[in-house]
Task: inverse folding
């Protein structure tokens, strides 16, 4: 167990990243499982959230299941990097924004309600920064699961194919918009969520359960921040694999220990020839580098590793706009 956390905090962080109770009083249910009072659980989660270790308690939508999203990058002049990063982070569509060791030194993830809104956002970023933006949308998912096992480093949870895209009803969009910041840390959080979405508590819980069943939600639970947990070294490892082989290679890499993300993305030729991406997180660069070497051997192709050097923004994806709120 990490000495930085009490036994209760460790259980909350480690055991409830998925499978969070979908019952009217979920924190009381967690407290019963942990053998403590509901108020103790609420206080601990509030403390962890204030410390930045917990981002929120809520849902993680599967990529491409709702809205539109893409990984994007630009090449910022070093003397303007911080100013450009601030402009990018200020965009409401941007969820993650990192500096990485590469000519393309600023990497960000943007989400929007639809492809048209996403394209407008990327165009606006290019205009505001004066830097051309390359967009690298996901084409195939092999392994996406940013749950971290505090004892062992990561959870093995391999997926292929991903969720199918679905159109949400107006009521579901209102629920999605209300869910984006996470559950309120109160005894009846689904009742609060339902009020914000303009529906009943039981109806809201049923929608969430349905989204989990059909894959719209990848998981529901405590969403942690890996950097604050001590995983301060992370590298985006990229490969140029022939299109006929990329699925097989991706599935091999997804099964490797140390891989937290693995997916195929569209190339952006001639600037960006890579089509297979893995993310590797570790407590130090020395921990990560041997994993990268192993991945290259397993893939059978050379790779390039882009270590992150600064995190400018990190939050959950926002697929729903203000117009979706009840």
Result:
């Amino acid at each position: 167990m990490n000495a930085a956390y009490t036994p209760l905090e460790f259980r909350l962080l480690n055991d409830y990243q998925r499978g969070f109770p979908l019952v009217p009083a979920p924190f009381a249910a967690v407290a019963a499982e942990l053998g403590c009072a509901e108020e103790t659980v609420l206080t601990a989660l509030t403390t962890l959230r204030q410390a930045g270790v917990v981002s929120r308690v809520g849902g993680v939508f599967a990529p491409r299941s709702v809205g539109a999203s893409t990984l994007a990058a630009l090449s910022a002049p070093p003397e303007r990097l911080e100013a450009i990063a601030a402009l990018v982070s200020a965009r409401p569509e941007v969820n993650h924004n990192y500096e990485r060791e590469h000519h393309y030194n600023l990497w960000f993830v943007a989400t929007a309600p639809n492809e048209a809104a996403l394209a407008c956002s990327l165009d606006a970023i290019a205009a505001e920064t004066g830097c051309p933006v390359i967009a690298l949308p996901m084409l195939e998912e092999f392994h996406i699961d940013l749950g971290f096992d505090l004892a062992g480093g990561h959870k093995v949870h391999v997926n292929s194919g991903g969720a199918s895209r679905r159109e949400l009803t107006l009521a579901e969009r209102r629920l999605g918009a209300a869910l984006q910041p996470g559950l309120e840390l109160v005894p009846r959080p689904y009742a609060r969520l339902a009020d914000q979405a303009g529906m009943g508590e039981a109806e809201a819980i049923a929608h969430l359960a349905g989204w989990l069943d059909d894959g719209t939600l990848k998981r529901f639970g405590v969403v942690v921040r890996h950097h604050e947990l001590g995983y301060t070294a992370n590298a985006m490892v990229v490969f140029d694999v022939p299109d006929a082989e990329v699925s097989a290679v991706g599935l091999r890499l997804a099964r490797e220990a140390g891989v937290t993300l693995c997916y195929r993305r569209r190339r952006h030729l001639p600037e960006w020839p890579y089509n297979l991406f893995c993310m590797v997180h570790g407590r130090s660069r020395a921990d990560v580098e041997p994993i990268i070497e192993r991945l290259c051997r397993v893939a059978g192709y050379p790779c390039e590793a882009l270590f992150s050097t600064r995190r400018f923004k990190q939050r959950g994806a926002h697929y729903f706009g203000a117009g979706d709120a009840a």
Observations:
- The chain has ten helices and eleven strands.
- The CA atoms of residues 66 and 168 lie 8 Å apart.
- The chain has a mean pLDDT of 91.
- Residues 68-159+227-313 form a domain with the Alpha-Beta Plaits fold (CATH 3.30.70.3460).
